[in-house]
Each structure stands twice: as C-alpha cells, then as structure tokens.
Amino acid sequence: MFNKKTVEDIDVKDKKVLVRVDYNVPLNLSGNVTDNTRIILSLPTINYLLSKNSRIILISHLGRPKDKVDEKYRLNPAAAELEKLIGKPVKKFNEIYSPQIKDYIDNEMKPGDIVMLENLRFDPGEKKNDTEFAKNLSTLADIYVNDAFGAAHRAHASISGIAGFIPAVAGYLMKKEVEVLETLLENPARPFIAVLGGSKVSDKISVIKNLIGKVNALILGGGMTYTFLKAEGHSVGKSICEDDQIRYAKDMLELAMKNNVKLMLPVDVIIAPEYAENAESRNVKISDIPSQWEGMGIGEKTAEIYKKEILKARTVFWNGPMGVFEFDKFGRATKEVAEAIANSGAVTVVGGGDTIAAIKKYGLSDKFTHVSSGGGASMEFLEGKVLPGVDALLDK
After folding, report:
1. What is the pLDDT of residue 199?
2. Residue-wise burial string across 314-350, b where 16 or more C-beta atoms lie within 10 A, e elsewhere
3. Residue 46: enclosing H or E segment and its boundaries?
4. Of the candidates 137, 148, 140, the residue with the CA atom closest to the CA atom of residue 102
5. What is the tally of helices (H) and strands (E) in the chain?
C-alpha cells in the first residue's frame, strides 16, 4: 500500500504547482524527440492539475550536461512535444530560476497555464542538492508534486530538496510505480520468477540477494552468467567475467539452495571469436567454450528450458537481456524469452533501459502488465533501498 500523500490528497485548486517530471527523452540529430513515452506517462498528473485550474510549473533534467548550459540538452524539444500531446501552449523559459520567472508566475500566469523551466542539470546545485537552489525553486509554487520515478533514487535538489520547503506529494506515475514494485516484494502471485540479465554481476548484487528470499525461481542470462559459470568451475574463454565477484556468485548459489530457490544458469551458450555483428558463431555446451571465444548469449537449449519455467509463473519480473540482442544474429534467445514472458499470462513487470529497448525492438511493449519508467530506481527499490524521492513526500 502506498503510504504517501498523492496529488489527490491535497488541495491543488487554483494553486501554483511545481511538478518534477522525467523528460529525459532521446533526441535525434535534428533535436526532435524520438521516443515520447516518458512525456505521455506524465499526462495523467498534468491533466488532473489542469482539471483543477492549477498553474503548472514543470521541471526536469535531460542528458548529462555537466552542470553547465549545453545547447543540445535544452528542454525545448520536450516542451514542443508536450504541446502537441496536451493540445495547449507550453511556455518554455531558457533559465531554471530568475526574479523575472517568479514575477511571470506570480503575476501573469493564468489558471490552466503551463510553463517549463530549463534543464535542471545546467546548474551544479541540482546534483549537489544545494539548499539555496532548492529553496529558489520552491518559491515559485505552493505545492510540489514529484512524478519523476525514474529519478527518485537520486538525492538531488529537485527530487528531495524542494520537499523541505513546500508540501510535497506524489503524482499518478510515482504512485503506480511504487505500488507495482511493492506488490512484487510483499504479495506476488506465485510462482514468482525473476529473470535477470545484463553484463555485470556487480550491477545486480543487492537485487539478487534481496530477491532470493522472495522468488520461487531466479533465471540468469547475459554477460553476468559467466561469473557464475566460472564460480561453478567452468572455463569461460574470453567471455566477460568479474573475477572479483566469483566469491559472491558462490555465496548466491549457496543462498539459493538454502532458501529452496531454483537458480537457473545456462546449459549452453552462443559464442563468437569476437564482439562483432557478423562474427562467426557456434552454439556449444557450457563445458565446451574455447579459450579464444566469448559468450554472446544463452544457447538454444537454455532458451527452451527458460521458456518452460516462465510458463509456470504467475508473476514475472524481468531486468536485463539474455545476450547481445543489439546484433540480430545473437538476439534470438532474448526475443524468445521476451515473447515467453509477454505471452505467459502472468503479471509481468519489466525494468531497465536495455530491457525496454529489447521489447520495443520486438514490438512487445504493450504486452506487459507494467513497464517501469525507471530502471535504476526500480532496481534500487527491489534491493530494499529507500528512494530519496519517495521518502521526502508527505506521509498519509
């Protein structure tokens, strides 16, 4: 149960409302938004505020501009895209805060107007969670609404700092994300299976440890599996392997056994002599990886075993591809696993940038129960960490 106040729990009628959105969207070379998903996800909160005649002040970051103005990271394309989606003007400022902006908001904005401030990361005060920076932003509004789940794991000024000065509540997206992930941890329909991939074990240490006590089965794929395979005594050739995590991998194998959790590793892999799109490839048993070859993904037999296990599930969480899905030649297993999860009939939750890219590539985005807008935030939540952006909101 979401135990924080939301935009519906506070009087926003005719109020000035500062809304932290996540408009960290991809742009092409012409500066146009190529994927407006994150903007679309913000619309329920914005439309609710419009229905209450709020004056809406939107703030977001975009890219990594290194604490200074960088023309290619201005939020103008996001403002233009929002205008098209919302069907009304969005006044975009080229600064984050100034007396002139405050004067405009106080004296010229009308109920139902929308303004967007400039990229928060143009100012070093954002990432430093600078008190003065947060205070200046807070003076622009009566109420703060955080709807940027994708940045909720950052203790930045616009995420947690502002909440120290004006009442802070969650938007609809923030509430939905937390509720979905809380259900995974506290009351999932069983069997509950987690499918974890990606390149590094070190990126998944805490989440694997936390999930082992909660899932019925843990399916591993991608580059991280070679550290586990080496921990079991296999030779992995030139495959990506974190030798400093082998002890951890052994501990996780033991912990899974102790908790009666089925921890599943590949029985075969697709290998190549080099990381290249058109490299020669072979499907081999995990015991037969040559010393000068590297793993590019789980093999055909493994994919079949994983798919059968997935079809038993009533809840599936997936983060991380099963191999180098960017190259079509090596992406078959990721595609098959993605399709198995999508068609399993289970409650399916997907998180992580590469995973979302994979399901978009295979045209499966609308086949999952929930696609999380925040890969890093969702993983930290599933690790059991407190997210600063959620913690700062008013309790119910």
Report:
1. 85
2. ebbbbbbbbbbbebebbbbbbbbbbbbbbebebbbbb
3. helix 37-51
4. 140
5. 14, 15
Active site residues: 38, 200, 353, 376
Assigned token pair, 147: 């709807």
* Edge-to-edge strands, sheet with 192-196: 262-264, 217-220, 192-196, 315-319, 347-350, 370-371
What DSSP assignment string belongs to 156-198? Answer: -IIIIIGGGTS-EEE-HHHHHHHHHHHHHHHS--SSEEEEE-S
Q: Mean pLDDT across the stretch 61-82?
A: 95
Q: Is the pLDDT of residue 281 over 90?
A: yes
Q: What one-letter code names the amino acid at 239?
A: S
State yes or no: pLDDT of 158 exceeds 90: yes
The predicted pLDDT at position 377 comes to 92
Residue 298 in contact with residue 292, Cβ under 8 Å? no
Which residues share a beta bridge with 323?
A: 297
Which helix (H) or strand (E) covers residue 19, if one does? Answer: strand 16-20
Q: Report d(CA 140, CA 290) in Å as an integer.
A: 63
Cα(227)–Cα(220) distance, integer angstroms: 11
| C-alpha closest to that of 5 among 333, 307, 312, 393 | 393
CB environment 359-394: b (16+ within 10 A), e (fewer): bebbebeebbebbbbbbbbbbbbbbeeebbbbebbe
- Over residues 119-127, mean pLDDT: 97
Mean pLDDT calculated for residue range 373-395: 93
What pLDDT is stored for residue 255 in this prediction? 93
Confidence of residue 357 (pLDDT cuts 50, 70, 90): confident
Does the pLDDT at position 319 exceed 90?
Answer: yes
Residue 137, φ and ψ in degrees, nearest 5:
-60, -40
Domains of the chain: 7-173 (3.40.50.1260), 180-382 (3.40.50.1260)
pLDDT of residue 365: 87
